[in-house]
From TrEMBL:
InterPro entries: ClpP/crotonase-like_dom_sf, ECH_dom, HIBYL-CoA-H. It comes from Duganella lactea. It holds the Pfam family ECH_2. This is Enoyl-CoA hydratase/isomerase family protein. Residues 14-340 form the Enoyl-CoA hydratase/isomerase domain. Keywords: Hydrolase.
Length: 354
């Protein structure tokens, strides 16, 4: 097992603890393999009736993939074609699929930061959010796109919420996560001792029902997304990112102006790619979405947008990414569609067996 993944079995529940606190539990290939190994071992183990995954810290459940690793590995080879990067995304997406299709209850306690890859190891199960939950699919901020099944779960959010969350990459809390269908239960920190006792004492076979009964007594409060729902649906149903921007520009309200300011910092190309991704994802199952994303991530590293985004925001921290193209009006439909061109024939796709 990984030094940063701890597993145990008690009372019919398999427990996975993410323990890389200094990196906010950012997923490494080693961690992906350790989680996969545990889930495969427990899948057919009669002694395990349910699985719980959580963090050793309430600061973060999982902040995403290890983007410093992506940068170093991707930059070291022409067109970002590192074998380690290839292995990481193939195995991470296979893990995401395993979780979505897991035959036993899989429960994710999403304390603290839950972003990117953290969403990938949570969205396929029963999702518990807390007062500290800070959830996002912020990939457009680093020149990537909402992967790890984002094309599946964002495309199934109510109205245009998926387009809004994916194209802007904004962060939401517990009430908004519940409203958007990206969480199932709310657990207040003030009652954390009761939740921990429930998770420890309840047999795995009855854990989902016990969690539902527990959560029924707690309310997360008002949703900001609900308050802005009409505006979100109106603007983000416009059909394309340029049309969304035009719609927002015609709206003098504070929400529209704030949203425009956020979008001005994102990769123009990857906002457009994300819009197309979510549109396509609505017609695909989980496996189809992950296969589409797996080809797209290869194109993304070839393009180099993610390497530049990580450089600007994480490595050099100049917060001045040189996006290519630099402006939204320079992004053509041909550029977007080129990112979705198949990388492998179907029979050779690394996720063909999903």
């Amino acid at each position: 097992m990984s030094e940063t993944i701890h597993t145990s079995v008690s009372n019919g529940t398999g427990l996975i603890v993410l323990d890389r606190p200094k990196a906010l539990n950012s997923l490494s290939l080693d961690m992906v393999r350790a989680i996969t190994q545990a889930l495969l071992a427990w899948r057919d183990d009669a002694a395990v009736a349910a699985v719980v995954i959580r963090s050793s810290s309430d600061k973060a459940f999982c902040a995403g993939g290890d983007i410093r690793f992506f940068y170093e590995a991707g930059r070291s080879t022409p067109q970002g074609g590192s074998a380690l990067v290839e292995d990481f995304f193939t195995e991470e997406y296979a893990l995401n699929h395993l979780i979505h299709c897991y035959p036993k209850p899989y429960i994710a306690l999403m304390d603290g930061v839950v972003m990117g890859g953290g969403m990938g190891v949570a969205q396929g199960g029963v999702r518990i959010v807390t007062d500290k939950t800070r959830m996002a699919m912020p990939e457009v901020n680093i020149g990537l796109f909402p992967d790890v099944g984002g094309s599946y779960f964002l495309s199934r959010a109510p109205g245009a919420l998926g387009y809004y969350l994916g194209v802007t990459g904004v962060t939401i809390g517990a009430a908004d996560a519940l409203y958007a269908g990206l969480a199932d239960h709310y657990a207040p920190l003030a009652d954390r001792a009761a939740l921990d006792a429930l998770l420890l004492a309840t047999p795995g076979a009855t854990l989902p029902a016990a969690l539902s009964a527990y959560a029924a007594t707690h309310q997360a409060g008002d949703s900001t997304l609900a308050a802005h729902r009409d505006a979100i649906d109106r603007h983000f149903s416009a059909g394309s990112v340029p049309a969304i921007v035009a719609s927002l520009q015609a709206d003098g309200g504070e929400f529209a102006q704030k949203t425009l300011a956020v979008m001005a910092t994102r990769s123009p190309l990857m906002m457009c790619v994300t819009h197309e991704l979510i549109k396509r994802g609505a017609a695909l199952d989980v496996a189809g979405c992950l296969r589409m994303e797996r080809a797209l991530v290869r194109r993304n590293f070839e393009n180099g947008e993610v390497i530049e985004g990580v450089r600007a925001l994480v490595i050099d921290k100049d917060n001045a990414p040189q996006w290519q193209p630099a402006r939204l009006d320079q992004v053509t439909e041909a550029m977007v569609q080129a990112m979705f061109q198949p990388v492998w024939p179907d029979y050779a796709h690394p996720l063909r067996h999903l």
